[in-house]
Amino acid sequence: MALIGVDRSYLSRLVGRQLTDADIEQAIPMLGCPYEGKEGSKLFFEIFPNRPDLLSAEGFARALRSFFGLGNAQVLHAGKGKLTVTVDRSVAGIRPHIACAVTRGARLEADQISSLIQLQEKIDETMGRKRKKIAIGLHDLDKVEAPFTYTAVGPHQIKFVPLDLEESMTPARILAEHPKGVKYGHILEGAAIYPVILDRNRQVLSLPPIINGELTKVTEKTKNLFIDITGPQERPLHEALNIICMALAEAGCSIETVKINGRVSPDLAARSMLVDIKYANRLLGTSLSAKEFASLAQRMGLAYRNGTVAIPPYRNDIMHGMDVVEDIAIAYGYQNFVPILPAVPTAGGTLLDGRFVRLCSRLLEGSGFQQVVTMSLVNEEEAYAKMGRVPEKDACRMRNSVSSECTMFRTSLLPGVLKTFSQNKHNAYPQKIFEAGEVMVLDNQAETGATGSVKLAAGWSDGNAGYEKLAPIIDSLLANVGRGYKLVPAEHAGMINGRAARIVAGTEVGVIGEVHPAVLEKWNLEKPAAVFEINLSALLAGKRKAQGSG
């Protein structure tokens, strides 16, 4: 969740009427944006991750105008521009993709600049995963000369003045000394060359994803803007670009396209989706007519006609008909739904499996470990190559994945533990973390074709991390859940020979060991790490069996 601050008078001006206290405290939260209070004239709202288009005052106002019935949102349009960007092959292995746009006719006031900077920072932090997936650059177009080139240079090959500084610095020095370089430099870790955007005269606009140049700083005098968004995958860049173009269009700018290696950016065409009103009524328990459905869709900035919903280019959260139904429910008003108790004779409760997982989690928290939650969908490089493991035949792999980062369901939690360590090298040591989560493998005997189980993985990383640090933790954990066990020395892929063991509680339920130096190197870890992983589903099944036979 992201917290945004907007000036009340500026927001009211954008919406087209004075916002009342009732609007702010009661109506706006019904849109899904909880009001979090104010400081002076600035109002604070919490924005859910599925609505990044609301991260600016302009996007927020656009949604509110529709929600309050103050008029239809204007259709976004990008005129044909002349600016071109050439992407050099040198960036292919570093940060290969870029999306761009030009806006003209800006009349930027202090409120608009503040909102624009806030939008840039919030997208970088949320959608952009702290600039790893998305990094945005906003530039005064009139300070440089097109065409532009997105290329890579050596650490000391070029100098430029970073934003808000007066001294020229090389990319290497920026990464080592500049606050933004220190904060985001890990994204370029291991790269021998660094990406830059250059103009016709080889002046530097940006060193993405670290910092822009002072040369193209946006001020109240800026009339024309060049927007660049870079990242490892193309689709998220265009989604973010459409949101920024929408905000600038609301601020009175006209949008122009840019040719990137011959391809046109941005694409502001609306998407179409078939939605069955009967399906929506059945889910919501309503009896909406086509006219009523269209009216509610309009309140959410959508357009419904003859079974088809037109979706604006900045609403990338709408991926399925269910998302449209959710918008209809918001417009209808959750307060207008009458709750009905289900006609069942039983009361709900927590499953034993869930209580067992929570007990194990609390025990590790009591031992000083911090819980983390990582992605269930991973990729084969992280699951196998970086772990020193051979790919498993029974792993659940995805067909036609839209992301190279998510190609299979995890079979182990240990890659997530090591990935978390690799992303937190800048934090203090020792680092002690754990995760309890589901893993999955193919199973022809299962109704769904796959079987899931819950595992618990923990890791300890510092200069003295070792087998002997985690063995007492396992001893305490299993003693508190009432299971006897033994550690049986064994070899395990990715662990040091002689410093690994199987955890046996009737049957093998897990593994413990010290991470092999080769694996540490693949994860760019500089300190030793010890880990263990226990299959809690197998452990609980064994406990039930032992209690039953006893």
Molecular structure report:
The chain is an alpha+beta fold. The chain has 4 domains: 2-67, Phenylalanyl-tRNA Synthetase, Chain B, domain 1, CATH 3.30.56; 78-265, Phenylalanyl-tRNA Synthetase, Chain B, domain 3 (3-Layer(bba) Sandwich), CATH 3.50.40; 271-332, Phenylalanyl-tRNA Synthetase, Chain B, domain 1 (2-Layer Sandwich); 352-549, BirA Bifunctional Protein, domain 2, CATH 3.30.930.10. It is built from 16 helices and 27 strands. Strands 11-10-9-8-5-14-15 form a 7-stranded mixed β-sheet, with no helix packed on it. A 7-stranded mixed β-sheet has the order 19-22-23-27-26-25-24, with helices on both faces. Strands 4-13-6-12-7 form a 5-stranded mixed β-sheet. α3 crosses α7 (234-250) and α9 crosses α10 (321-332). The radius of gyration is 27 Å and the shape is globular. The mean pLDDT is 92.
As for the CATH topology of the largest domain, it is BirA Bifunctional Protein, domain 2
Given helix and strand content, the structural type is: alpha+beta
Fourth CATH level, the homologous superfamily of the largest domain: Bira Bifunctional Protein, Domain 2
* Beta-strand residue fraction: 25-35%
CATH architecture of the largest domain: 2-Layer Sandwich
Terminal CA distance = 49 Å
Provide the helix percentage: 25-40%
Instruction: Provide the low-confidence segments as ranges.
Output: none
